[in-house]
Design a protein that fits this description.
The protein folds into three domains: 42 residues; 63 residues, Arc Repressor Mutant, subunit A (Orthogonal Bundle); 150 residues, GntR ligand-binding domain-like (Four Helix Bundle (Hemerythrin (Met), subunit A), Up-down Bundle), CATH 1.20.120. It is 75% helix and 5% strand. It has ten helices and five strands.
Length: 263
């Protein structure tokens, strides 16, 4: 393609090229700036804000285990609509922090010693069964995913971010339940364990080392998935869960002067 010949043509050509360059580089800057802004700004939906506000109130003790949550009153306090609060409570129920009871409404999760013992009685047997079945289905990719969750648990333990620790811990167990290949077993464990985890987040706090040791125990189980038999895996899982139950019962309940267990 021939270039401009006269001085005037060359000047116009140079000016046009400079304008095009300025426009092009300006556009690139805008794109880079936009990308940077997208990394910095994290949009939080109104529902997520309501979920966070209610969850913070539960974890801080402003709303205590067993307290009833009235949707209309909560909406008024938060300055949001009732449908939004209802959606938030569904999310919190999925996380185990609240429970819905027919004719009673929504209450903050509260578990008594007898309930915890009964839950563990089932959980120990069912989760031991789940890991034995998972042995037949686990892949290298699954092992990698479980290890990533453990790494997240370790970071949360170091920072004493208990909410994040239990969230990663629960995701780790959920992965095992799915690997069992039995949707009914996974569903039962979901309904049993999720409220248990949430109640522990609300009511317990251990030393940093205890959380680090817990993450390490999860790591041992993952290593065993590739090396141990199904029978050995069941025994390892039962031992781990029974030890955790004993620790939690000591942390959650203390004896009064009459030898009765109380919160």
């Amino acid at each position: 393609m021939a270039g401009p010949n006269s001085w005037g043509e060359r000047s116009r050509f140079t000016a046009a090229r400079r304008s095009y360059y300025d426009l092009a580089t300006s556009g690139k800057d805008d794109i880079v700036f936009s990308r940077k802004m997208l990394k910095l700004i994290q949009a939080i939906s109104k529902k997520d804000q309501v979920v966070a506000a209610i969850k913070d109130a539960i974890l801080s003790g402003a709303i205590e285990p067993g307290d009833q949550i009235v949707e209309s009153r909560m909406a008024q306090q938060l300055g949001s609509g009732i449908p939004l609060v209802r959606e938030a409570l569904i999310a919190l129920e999925h996380q185990g922090f609240v429970q819905k009871t027919p004719y009673k409404g929504t209450t903050v999760t509260k578990l008594e010693p007898k309930q915890i013992r009964e839950i563990f009685q089932l959980r120990v047997e069912l989760e031991a069964l789940a890991i034995a079945w998972a042995k037949e289905n686990v892949t290298p990719a699954d092992i990698k995913e479980l290890k990533v969750l453990i790494e997240s648990m370790e970071r949360a333990a170091t920072e004493l971010d208990l909410d994040q620790f239990y969230e990663n811990d629960l995701d780790w167990h959920r992965k095992l339940w799915v690997l069992s290949g039995n949707a009914y077993l996974a569903d039962v464990l979901e309904r049993l364990v999720v409220p248990l985890f949430a109640f522990f987040v609300m009511k317990t706090k251990r030393e940093r080392e205890a959380y680090i040791e817990s993450a390490a125990m999860h790591g041992q189980i993952v290593e065993a998935l590739a090396q141990k038999s199904a029978r050995e895996l069941r025994a390892l899982m039962k031992e781990s869960l029974m030890g955790w139950k004993d620790d939690m019962m000591k942390l959650l309940f203390t004896e009064n002067s009459r030898g009765q267990k109380t919160l």
